[in-house]
Amino acid sequence: MTEAMAMSLMKEAITTALLLALPLLGVGLVVGLVISLFQAVTQIHETTLTFVPKLLGIAAALVFLGPWMLHRLLAFTTSLFALMPQMVR
Length: 89
Fold this sequence. Notes:
Elements: H1 3-42, H2 51-87
């Protein structure tokens, strides 16, 4: 395995990880922001109020984006297995 090949694999791994994590983190961020605005407007400062909507939002995002995420992860894994003979040289 050459240094360029290792760097390419690491870049692809980091890109795949970011692509899989960003939609879920984005949903959590947006839901948290909306709940924070609601709390600021109504002056309800309950710490547990943010947990359930974030959980439901992330679960909904997983339901809708799960097949795409699985396809991305399988494509990355398949490319790793295809490169396996070249990595052991």
